[in-house]
Amino acid sequence: xxxxxxxxxxxxxxxxxxxxxxxxxxxxxxxxxxxxxxxxxxxxxxxxxxxxxxxxxxxxxxxxxxxxxxxxxxxxxxxxxxxxxxxxxxxxxxxxxxxxxxxxxxxxxxxxxxxxxxxxxxxxxxxxxxxxxxxxxxxxxxxxxxxxxxxxxxxxxxxxxxxxxxxxxxxxxxxxxxxxxxxxxxxxxxxxxxxxxxxxxxxxxxxxxxxxxxxxxxxxxxxxxxxxxxxxxxxxxxxxxxxxxxxxxxxxxxxxxxxxxxxxxxxxxxxxxxxxxxxxxxxxxxxxxxxxxxxxxxxxxxxxxxxxxxxxxxxxxxxxxxxxxxxxxxxxxxxxxxxxxxxxxxxxxxxxxxxxxxxxxxxxxxxxxxxxx
Length: 373
Known about the structure:
The chain is of the alpha/beta class.
């Protein structure tokens, strides 16, 4: 195959696709809006699953490099009551199928696996339009354009490529996460470090939660969840104590070692509103263009998002390599499997969301952990 592939978005899915294409000798360029790989923080821990994320990395020829990124012991998990009582706990004996890595390190591994110049930074897409015969023009904010015979939207929830295929738009799910961090927690925040434990911690109640994960270097990375209208969160993510204090009031009466993840944060809070596409989102085949990751199947957080994006990228790259000279056959095969896979994962994500934040929280999630659901 000699068709040059144009990918919009240098997240984990787009980079996995680029790497698989490179392995198979297929020319590719990735256009990314960020100014550089270090332009912003890349988020916290990711558990890379043996059913999708790990096979994707094997397809990319990066399994050995990935193993060097794994943080031992971080598959441990525990559920706490709002008063700090331990309701469920499971250690990490090294046999689990979801090893944990830092998202930023995983992204850097993928970037380093590509030839220099593959990723074009500072290329924010303004619009994309069809030119006919499967060709598309991508216009960038800097006034430049590229024309491509194969365009892949790996550009996330607010994809500029998606309108070429679908009129679907993300909808707010009624809940937002607020991201915070405690640094050097074992020394500076010992009670909270003890509450979080060695891996993931969940303290759940109907419509709200305080969740955290132990990262490298003693960092505790937290996601505080609250079901409120989107406008309720205006100002929460701004520097200063007022937003954090307002958020903490929603957890009045919770154990101080838990609310410290809000009130004692060492970093400014980052607002993460939750949006989703329709669970069965799909589109009719349009020549020369497709989607992967959140651009194709945005869903509530379930631990699967990054894994699915990488798996999409690996599957698409493998399909293109398997159909040399026939892009449409490759895209048809890829989307035939993508749609049912995405629909099933979206349904699972909705069920998990209900278990974690529904009227039965935290008991539903604990029963799931214990294998009762």
